[in-house]
Amino acid sequence: MPDDLFQDWPEPQPKETQPDEFPAALQNGLKRLDAPPAGVPAEIDARVLRMARRRLAWGRRLVWRVAAVGALAAAVAVVFILPELQPRLPPRPDAPAPPVFAEGDIDGNGRIDILDAFLLARRLESGAARQPEWDVDDNGRIDRRDIDAVALMAVRINGGSPS
């Protein structure tokens, strides 16, 4: 393309226009665009801020609640599922049998001695919760007669060992 094609055309010159040549409505509109934005009233600003904080706090509480429910569900799963995963072992044949205690053996050492009578007397005097196995004479009450019965068992000829 030849370069001399546009040589004859004059360069466009910007036209100088004065601000008063524009319509007044356009001038006012342009001035308003250039002006700083109108302020938000403090009451509305505070209300929006309170609502935003309340919404944010609700979200945080929801996260904590979901985390707590998840932790609780995990704990329940561990409590109920873990025992099921453990292998069930048969009892060992050489394991000792649990000791059998005779009536009147208050301290559970396998012998009926005067210490059992003393222990029963101390427990009754202290007001400790009464156990049904303390009713040695089988009269339905736990009292001084039971202490005497244990003492009599302790001084028997066979030494108070369970029969």
Mean pLDDT figure = 79
Tally of DSSP β-strands: 0
SSE class: mainly alpha
Structure annotation, total helices: 4
Distance between the termini: 131 Å
What would CATH call the class of the domain at 99-163? Answer: Mainly Alpha
Order of helices and strands: HHHH
**Major sheet description:** none
By CATH, the superfamily of the domain at 99-163 comes out as Dockerin domain
Helix content: 40-55%
Radius of gyration: 49 Å
CATH fold name of the domain at 99-163: Type 1 dockerin domain
Any idea what the shape is? rod-shaped
Under the CATH scheme, the architecture of the domain at 99-163 is Orthogonal Bundle
Which stretches of 5+ consecutive residues score pLDDT under 50?
none
Strand coverage percent: under 5%
Overview of the molecule:
It is built from four helices and no strands. It has helices at 24-34, 42-85, 114-126, 144-154. It has 163 residues and is mostly helical. Helix 3 packs antiparallel against helix 4. It is rod-shaped and about 145 Å long.
Relevant terms:
163 residues, mainly alpha, Type 1 dockerin domain, 4 helices, rod-shaped
List the helices and strands and how they pair.
Layout lengths: L23 H11 L7 H44 L28 H13 L17 H11 L9
Helix pairs in contact: 3-4
